[in-house]
């Protein structure tokens, strides 16, 4: 045993309401529920979120399995479309309140720390149809109201909150690269929605503090997928391109979350290119004054960047790619099922970046993981999936994280995506990420080899 982690380290896993619960008894549809209803062919094997992993019905036994594999903390998200019956007045849905109370109480009874996130790509579709979703300041205010309601109802027991999961992915999916409904391609609208998401997070944090949740042991964060930007070479052009990608994809949310400001050079670019967001001083002050207590960092893959070689195609109007191209680095290690590069060293770079440039704020790895297709072929005679590749993947990342902790970064936990195989956006159940497998036909849930391994890691607080 040579990698021991700090005392009370979180060994856990993360999921989200829309990906695990199933749509049972929800008063509203989120953008993915709606998209599946109108275009099921956009989803792998036409499997939608209707049942997902059935967490709505099986949360008790599911959480007991998490306990069995030694997890001491668990993140999920509360669905706006489940908790709130009237999106304007914020009148609650009784069954939604019952359900989230039951989940929280079950976690606590098992000694599992619940981490509750408020938005995981699941905008109520009505708010898109009526107001253009995150482009609207009214939607920002409705989100803050929903957040306040959640704090009022649950903050007596939930002490760890997050406002958003991966806001940049909402921008990429909804406004740039067409992988979230409504698949708009519009850089200017993307920029406005980005500001509004940062504002919505700050307004929710303000509600949290106005209610005194922070005086009650509560802490609030936002969860960002950091994709450290590595330039192709040390040339000035490549470095410049990489810095711009970093500002757009990482710092646009990381800076306001921790420092309450946006990267100046990015704002300069938006102004110069006539895509700058609309905002006022009062809103900027809210962002300034309501930064996070801690950060959740989802890390899956780095970003390899080079200066533009082919002229930028203006067909779609302004896009961040005006300033860089993706670099397909030869010889990189890759997860072929997801197409994502595997680069555990970046965990250390993230750790040092937070230590040196982000006030050494407390943070945890809120997602990391490896999605693999066709895992059932690794089943042994006892029916256990032998996912040694996942154990290797986690170990590699934890080693670099540990090195970061030794160098003084303030990291207090590691959550795998995900505890039990869950539904994913367009990929549905194609790639499996869990410590626990889900047989879609029999609905049986079985601990994988990695789950048994995690139990030991958690017991020993290291490996
Ligand atoms: C993260 C999301 C999760 C999850 C995960 C795996 O970006 O926060 O919701 O889905 O990625 O990605 P995917 O499901 O697309 O393979």
UniProtKB/TrEMBL annotation:
GO terms for cellular component: cytosol. The keyword Hydrolase applies. InterPro entries: GH, Glyco_hydro_1. One of its GO terms (molecular function) is beta-glucosidase activity. Keywords: Glycosidase, Hydrolase. GO terms for biological process: carbohydrate catabolic process. It comes from the Bacteria. Belongs to the glycosyl hydrolase 1 family. This is Aryl-phospho-beta-glucosidase. It comes from Clostridium gasigenes.
